[in-house]
Amino acid sequence: MKRVAVLIDGGHLRVLAKQAGFEYDPNYIEKVAKACVEADEDALRYLYYDCAPYTGKATLPVSGGEKQFGGSDRWLKDLAAKDLFAVRLGVLKFRGFKPKRIPVADRALTDDDFKPDFEQKGVDMRIGLDIATHAQNGMVDRLILVTGDTDCLPAMKHARISGIQIVLITFPDRSVAPELLWHSDFERRVAWLGQ
């Protein structure tokens, strides 16, 4: 029986699940996480990386009015309460507004022509640190990664050098950067699950 830890980049999984038409909530995340583990593997932990919704005020780009952002992080707490789950939080930064369409100058602009631009900070670093920690402590034989981010490559290389096998999860009709496959031991395709 191979001991495994499943590391899930929440931003990556959320985008793919929503594109595939699924409601993204803690129960769905748990289903996908458990589907990543095969019968000959024993899951030590499911690590989920994401950011709580941005809360704050911003000045709208055309009218100069004020926009209040807010959202609940209750779903992250519900996920963290599930058996064997741990949630690692980065910070969501507001980077301003960007146009919904380009070019933008074909008519008079309104605030509705722009959407907020957010950036996750600290998520990739936390994934990399956990990969390196697992590589050093030897508690698992395999790391199962749900990510599309090549920022994980140095940590993946370190884990493999340390003797940990890397399994990269992919989904139907979705491609990943070839570099992620080059630095994984196995590609495991997981089918989308119904709600």
Summed up, what is this model?
Strands 6-5-2-1-7-8-9 form a 7-stranded mixed beta sheet. A two-stranded antiparallel ribbon has the order 3-4.
Reconstruct the topology from this structure.
Elements: E1 2-9, H1 10-19, H2 26-35, E2 41-51, E3 56-59, E4 66-69, H3 74-80, E5 85-99, E6 114-121, H4 123-137, E7 142-146, H5 153-161, E8 165-170, H6 178-182, E9 186-189
Parallel strand pairs: 1-2, 1-7, 2-5, 7-8, 8-9
Antiparallel strand pairs: 3-4, 5-6
Helix pairs in contact: 2-3, 4-5
Summary keywords:
Rossmann fold; alpha/beta; 33% strand; 6 helices; 7-stranded mixed beta sheet; 29% helix; 195 residues
Description:
This protein has helices spanning 10-19, 26-35, 74-80, 123-137, 153-161, 178-182, and strands at 2-9, 41-51, 56-59, 66-69, 85-99, 114-121, 142-146, 165-170, 186-189. The strands form two sheets. The protein has a seven-stranded mixed β-sheet with strand order 6-5-2-1-7-8-9. It has a two-stranded antiparallel ribbon with strand order 3-4. Helix 2 runs parallel beside helix 3. Strand 8 (165-170), helix 6 (178-182) and strand 9 form a beta-alpha-beta unit. It is elongated and about 60 Å long. It contains six helices and nine strands, in the order βααβββαββαβαβαβ. The protein has a single domain (2-53, 71-91, 120-189), classed as Rossmann fold. Helix content is 29%, strand content 33%. The model has no long low-confidence stretch (mean pLDDT 92). The protein is α/β, with parallel strands linked by helices.
